[in-house]
Amino acid sequence: MALYELKQFPALWVTWLAKLMTDEIQCPWSVWFRTHYKYEKLNRDFDSAKWSASHRQLMDDRIAQLQAAEWVVSIEGENWFEIEGRQHPVKIAGKPDILAIGPDQIWVEDCKTGRKKNSDLYQVLLYMLLLPVSHPRCRGQQLQGRLVYPDGTIEIAAEQVDETFKGQFREAIAYLSSTIPARKVPSFQECRYCDISAQYCPERVEESVVARSEEHDLF
Ligand code: SF4
C-alpha cells in the first residue's frame, strides 16, 4: 500500500461516530482520517482473543434467553447494514450484535463486557436511527434498544431518538464528510491508544511530559 490512499468513497463505522459524538475521542482528526483514507494500522496492545471470548459468552447467554422467550434472533453479520448519505458524501456501516424480532416489536441489542460508557448508549441510538432506513428486516419500523452488560440490561426507549439526537448526528456527519480536515488534538493520553502511526500523523505524542519537582517550587 502507498503511504496512505484516499478511499473511493468516505466511509465510517457507527462505533467511531458514537465515540466522537460523546467526546470519548477528543482528536476528531483521527476519525476524519479513518473516514477518508486507507492506511496501515499500528498494532496496539489489546488482548482481542480474551475480549472475543467474554463477548461471545455474553452474546450466547443473551441469545439463549431471547430464544427461550420465543423471539426470532439474528446476530452480527446478519444485521450488517450500510447507508449512503443524500446530502453528505459518506457511507455509514454498522453490525449490531442482536436483533430480536417479535410479532409487533423489534429490539436492537448490543452486548458490552467492558466498563459502561456514554458511547454504548449512542451506539445503540445510532442503530435505532439508521436500521429502519437501511436493513430489510427493520425497514419502516420503530425500534427499541437495549444494552446488555454482564451485571444487567439497560433499556433505551424509541423516543430517545429525538430531534436533539438527530441534530447532533447530522452535525457530526457534516463535519466528518467534509474534505476540510478536522481538528487534530495530539495528547499522550489519546495518541498511545491510536492506531495511526507517526508516518501519517507527525504530531503523534509518544511520551508523557511530567514536570519534575526540581523544576518548580509551587507545592
Ligand atoms: S496519533 Fe494522536 S494526534 Fe495523531 S490522529 Fe491519533 S490521536 Fe490524533
Keywords for this structure?
219 residues; 6 helices; alpha+beta; globular; 20% strand; 3-stranded mixed β-sheet; Lambda Exonuclease, Chain A; binds iron/sulfur cluster; 5-stranded mixed β-sheet
What does this structure look like?
The structure is a single chain. It is built from six helices and ten strands. The strands form three sheets. A five-stranded mixed β-sheet has the order 4-7-8-9-10, with helices on both faces. Strands 2-6-5 form a three-stranded mixed β-sheet. The model has no long low-confidence stretch (mean pLDDT 95). It has a single domain (4-215), classed as Lambda Exonuclease, Chain A (Alpha-Beta Complex). It has helices at 14-21, 28-36, 48-68, 118-130, 163-177, 188-191; strands at residues 4-6, 11-13, 37-39, 72-75, 81-84, 91-94, 98-101, 106-111, 143-149, 152-156. Helix 1 crosses helix 4. It is globular. The protein has 219 residues and is of the alpha+beta class. Helices cover 32% and strands 20% of the residues. The structure holds iron/sulfur cluster. Iron/sulfur cluster (SF4) binds at residues 27, 29-30, 184, 186, 190-191, 194, 196, 201, 203-204.
